[in-house]
Amino acid sequence: MKRTFILIIGMMAVVALLFTNASRPLAGYSVGDYAADFKLPNTDGKMVSMSDFSSAKGFIVVFTCNTCPYANAYESRIIDLDKKFADKGFPLVAINPNDIVQQPGDSMDEMKKRAKNKSYTFPYLRDDSQEVTKAFGATKTPHVYVLNKEANGKYKVEFIGAIDDSPNDPSDVSETYVENAINAVLSGSKPSVTEKRAIGCTIKWKS
Fold it and tell me: For residues 28 and 138, what is the distance between their CA atoms, to the nearest angstrom?
């Protein structure tokens, strides 16, 4: 009986370990790290990388999707961020990382429809392999990274986390973390807030 109990506990531990490894992303970037460039397919059929934006001073990289209520609540604010900062040298790049087996609504076809219906002014990229998402360490939708392109051409992480302090109602926003971070970088200083826990749906990882 004791041996059977120990065997069951051991099997449960193995299953738990396998599930954890399948569900948990790599550690990802921290503030101060340099982010590697990537190349992912856009809804317009082209491949997009950060190096394509030769005049960019930095980037707003947003991991988001079609199907998460939090991502939907932030959608208009994501659009506004690109409209506000793209001309200032900080274009927005959105990346959809969700496993489409679990979330068919996040397929490229559905992404194309949403980008068209919502008149996205920014690339909406599909990370089918989830390797870019794991490299960044994103865990939620939405999850934002503000990158500063330095003179050496490297992309330094200046902020990680939430767009602002109101995940549901834009009218309740009192702290605009991403905007504040970009404005600080544009003025030549460091953001006063460099990390805020992202609030959203968990990314759907491939099993």
Answer: 7
Q: What is the pLDDT of residues 125-162, one digit of tens each?
A: 999 999 999 999 999 999 999 999 999 999 999 999 99
195 CB neighbour count, 10 Å cutoff: 15
| Distance set, CA 48 to CA 18, 113, 140 (Å) | 33, 19, 22
Residue in 104, 113, 96 with CA at minimum distance from that of residue 40: 96
Residue ranges and CATH numbers for the domains of the chain are 28-202 (3.40.30.10)
Task: Assess whether the previous peptide bond of 142 is cis (omega < 30° from 0).
Answer: yes
Q: 188 and 148 in contact (C-beta within 8 Å)? A: no
How far is Cα 54 from Cα 178, in angstroms, rounded to an integer? Answer: 22
Given a contact cutoff of 8 angstroms between Cβ atoms, the answer to whether 162 and 144 are in contact is yes
Helix (H) or strand (E) holding 48: strand 47-48
Residue 150, helix vs strand vs coil: coil
Residue 188, sorted as left (phi over 0), alpha (psi -120 to 50) or beta, turns out to be left
